[in-house]
Amino acid sequence: MTVAQTLAVVVTAIEQVTPLIKHFTLAAADGGTLPAFSGGSHIIVVMQGSLRTHRNPYSLLSSPQRLDTYEIGVRRMEESRGGSHFMHDHLKVGSRLEIAHPVNLFGLEKIARKHLLIAGGIGITPFLAQLEDLEGATAPYELHYAVRSPEHAAFLDRLRNRAGERLHLYCDTENQSIDFDGLLSAQPLGTHVYVCGPAGLINRVVDTARRFGWPDSHVHSEKFSAPPVGDAFDVFLARTQISVHVPPDNSLMESIEAAGVEVPYLCRGGVCGFCQTRVIELEGELVHNDHFLSDAEKSGGKRIMPCVSRARCTRLVLDL
Amino acid sequence: MSAVFKPDETFRDDFSFRNSPAAIRRFPLPFTEDQYMYSVNIEPHLPGPKGSCTEFAFDVDEHYVAECRERELVLAQDPLRFQALPHMMSSQWDCLELIMESFARDYPEHFSLEKHGNRWHWINRPLDLDQHFVFGDAGTLPRQPLDYIGRQAQGDFVIMDQRAGDLWLEAGMVTAQADWSLDFDMGMTFREWHGPVPLAHEMTVFDRALKYLLNLRLGQPVRRLNWTMTVHPRLDTSPESYPQWGPDRTTITAQNAGDRVHLRVELQGLWRLPRSNAIVFGIRCYLISLRELASVPKWGRRMHRVLKGLHPALAEYKGLLRYRDAVVEWLAPYDDGAPTSPGASPD
Lengths: 320, 347
Prior knowledge:
The complex is a heterodimer of chains A (320) and B (347). With 320 residues, chain A is an alpha/beta fold. Chain A has helices spanning 83-90, 125-134, 156-163, 180-185, 199-211, 252-258, 295-300, and strands at residues 6-16, 21-28, 41-48, 53-59, 69-75, 96-100, 103-104, 114-120, 141-147, 167-171, 191-196, 219-221, 233-237, 242-246, 277-287, 303-304, 310-318. In chain B, the strands form 2 sheets. A 7-stranded antiparallel beta sheet of chain B has the order 1-8-9-10-6-7-2. Chain B has 347 residues and is an alpha+beta fold. Chain B is built from 13 helices and 10 strands. Chain B has helices at residues 21-25, 64-77, 89-106, 145-150, 182-185, 190-193, 205-214, 242-245, 257-260, 290-294, 297-308, 312-317, 324-331; strands at residues 43-44, 82-84, 111-116, 119-124, 129-134, 156-163, 166-173, 222-231, 261-272, 279-289. The chains are: A alpha/beta (320), B alpha+beta (347).
């Protein structure tokens, strides 16, 4: 589903909480209440940069009980396409942004007997909101938080305040590290483990859990699924006889619509099949992101779902 | 639109339920062409035209008071029509909030909701209810949240928890169902409870629908229409009450079909719930007798053609085999062979 609907927000506070992480507080531009959410949710922040529009996902770290503001933590990424730099360098108190409604792809399992939370660095953010959801819950939890050094341990006061002894902090500079084998070999049945952080940490937890026989359904890691982006390409619409440019961060359907041509659609998420379009000519390859076409149809290259799919091509002609 | 309620109509015994001419005109006919087959016919649940069944998130129509009374009767006889597993409490509150906020916003003449932090005040004028409670504290309501609000809304509600890449049916208020059982389906996954549906599995309808629903977004509800037929305007056609309604199917003739046989359309809405990340599935049932339906010439023609050409497996699954021929015969005089215009709305 494309992000059709956005909310206008205003930055109300910015705090540098570690050398690399800034903490932003956002309020609805109209002063109203923001949509309710569950711990683990992220929002897509839409930033109008000078050269392109950035759409980056950030976990909400504020309490789901408080809907007057949303809070996010943004780490300055060295190998960034520009989103985190924009957040760090261009935002001021009073700056306006567009955000999409919260989406939770990293929710706490309501039937878990125990929650084992493992964070690395900026990966702590979804757990900050989840700790609020866990307050008063019957299932116990532990939070294991690995950071480079004490000065990189963002939100430590808030975590200590909430989690108390359930917080276990590990600093690389102190030669402290998580004992993954010990931790994952000695949990009660019904425990769910959640990991968020660098790919190395996620892989380590997932591999160790598998080695000790954890069912996949009890192992959760945060992986953002931003709207599919890709290379820019051009498409020629045979019926309307116009050429349309598709930039990297716009979908094929959005670009065709922006050119004033209507594409029939229902779901805009690549499942209903309604926007299926015939490919008349193709020099290059289609990048199918839909769940509708069969593998054979996808490799056949004669059909495309413009709502989510794109192309890497020098020429594409569609029956539109 | 503010409908005039018909509080005394019944969905059992003397079956005094009728549609007013206005209710007939706004009936959500599911047939956009003269034939029918399954599809993933899901679309965004955006506001429809003024006065239509989809103008608002939840439709409150002329049958509101009578349907709420019918629901109370069913629940009194069979309390298991409401069930919720313990971990579904936050989703029950989400659902209560969604319905109360929608009703109060869309029908201010009938409902009001005042919030002071977690202290809420709900007024339902048609049912004469006035309730102060603390949102999130089930002890301050006379019943569990879904049980409380479900009795004040038309249509059935099922709440699905999302985990392990699947949807699990784990709470519901279901009294107006087309021959499926909440009690039997509790705890099942999406594919499990759709197991009995013919043809659709081979068409991978459910695989696609599940993928779509797992990605359902907050603030972007979707809807679809489904349909079957029911003898008499009976809302409670559950497996549990089969002895009461099953034999009615044997009574249909080409002479009485127009008044006894009803097209039963479900306006199904799906909303992501904010705090629980669950999904609520609303199943709103609309009934119309074939005589009422055929009062719209386009619909009489179309209904005749759809039923005549219906795939046998679908006719069997929908329970129509015993009386389809009689219904087709009753409808035949309304089909003069003229073409029908595209789309479902009356000409």
